[in-house]
Amino acid sequence: MFGDLPPEILGEILHRLPVKSLVKCTIVCKHLNSFITDQTFIFDHLNQTIQASSGNGWLFLQLYLRTRHLVPYIHHEEFYSLYSHNQQIDQFSFKKFPLSGLLRSYNHSTVVGTCDGLVCITDSQIYHMATLLIWNPSIRKYMIIFEPILTSDTGNGQHKGYQPLYGFGFDSKNKDYKVIRLVALLDKEIVPQVEVFSLASRSWRSIPFRASPFLLPDLFWNIPQVFLNGVVHWVVSRRCDDHILNFILTFDVVEETFGELTLPQLLRESTTELSILEGGDSLCVLHALYVEDDCFFSIWVMKEYGVVGSWNEVYCWDSHLYKGITTVLDLCADGKVVLLLYSGDVVLLDPVTEVVKSLTGQKWFHAFAGSYVESLVFIKREPDLLSYEFT
Prior knowledge:
The protein is mainly β. The protein is built from five helices and 25 strands. The chain has a domain at 2-47.
């Protein structure tokens, strides 16, 4: 029956189906399987899904629950959640995740980033022992990326003090997803070593850095990144005379070149915590400012990408608001903000109406939030792609 339909009509029908329905269609007949697993259809469906979301995309959460209060960073349980239009559609414990036996983290795994329905996770931020994976929660498939090239210096302990900085993004020219790994010293300003993993070639390769040395933030184990406009972004620092100046380090995923974006003066000279956020189609920076016993969180948005003077402070909250704010996790495309509260609850705040909605209702001690979109990436059967089901 489906083979009798013209390809353009079949495409129009299938493009409007959700991912779960398309997965079921792949086992109906060989013709549908071939059509749905074709790379052109996969990316056309992804683009249509993004356009149809109109700023109401999904939200991906990684959550950490205390199981022993005496040593919370060792004794915990991880959960992952997917939300669509603020409604939870999937949640499961990391213990039920088959990758839990592969990841070797001493504390907990870390989400590098999300891109086109894929989630990149690393088990450790330790220089010489790293396992990464790329995972599509929508279709429950994943691929393990084993140890990268830079695993140690000489084998005599010289790797101590080195820490990696990760990025994850999409090469639109070559239709390739890439993991970027920079290795630098935690307390010293040096030119890092850089390697890139290509999903298309399933391999790592080293590339020259070609940018000024930088300093890693103190919170080295969880340096956030944002992939936007084909570029990966991190907030880092450098020494200038007797001052530390902050800036945004960039990596063009297509050209594989580094660059910099300048922060507004207040953020550039700040000595307190800065972290990068994605705000829909805009680049954002979260500034935590401590004044005596109070903490204020402000979100700065780059209204026109790459233009220095286009930074604006759009939100500022006293940490005591909304029963106590621990941190800001994400700025959604529709302007709503994901907060982690003192209580451990993860909530969605509408800054206009000041309505706060609980998303999780438990006492989490740490969380990651990022934008998410359903996709068919990984739908095609390949030897190194693993699948699973939850019982």
